Amino acid sequence: AEASGGGDGPGAGRTEGYWAPLLQTPDRLRASDLNELLLPDHLERLKFRNSPLMAYGALFKWEVLVQNVLQLYSKPWAMVAASHDLPVPDDDEITRAVGVRSERAIQQIFRWTDDWGFSRQLAYEHYEAQAAVFASFEFNPVDGAVEWLGLLNSYEVPCCLCSSQIDADKARLAMSQCGLDDLFDAFVTAEDGCETPQQSYLVSAIKVRRPPARCIVFEDDPLGVV
Question: Is this model's pTM higher than 0.70 or not?
């Protein structure tokens, strides 16, 4: 996300040093810093007074919007496991690996290997397997998703899709097939470098320009919120 102190927009007249915390890598972002830096300025407060819901952001873990998403995650990992005669991860392990870097999942969740070079190789094979599965997967939204996002859009609540484990092309493909792509103001994808769901939500807050304390997270795992 860009952070500029010039012009007439939010933060006008503030120095580059003021915005420095916004330029940190995801693992160094702190919610307390963002809660201060992303507070609305005078003009925004006036706007929010007329439209109170605009003061909030809606952050969606992308898996909560798509049907049968566990199958989408389990099949690529099963393909990698089969090609190397490794234990196939169970559903619980697959769920815990969602939003985690592939190398980290391989070493810390599946416990396939401690060798970093082999982990990188397996991660690349997983990326290719995932691309193949994505290309043939039929994406459908969960019941009520289109209507709910449409309602948020009608109240001008900025919405961000958090899909840090897949790249931007795959995220947009999935949302396009679900009929949701035009309902998001921002995307957090693999290109943003987030290693955990928590990091992806902080990056999302920056992208929708709302303090984390004023962002609502739609998540299916308590760990992602805590």
Answer: yes
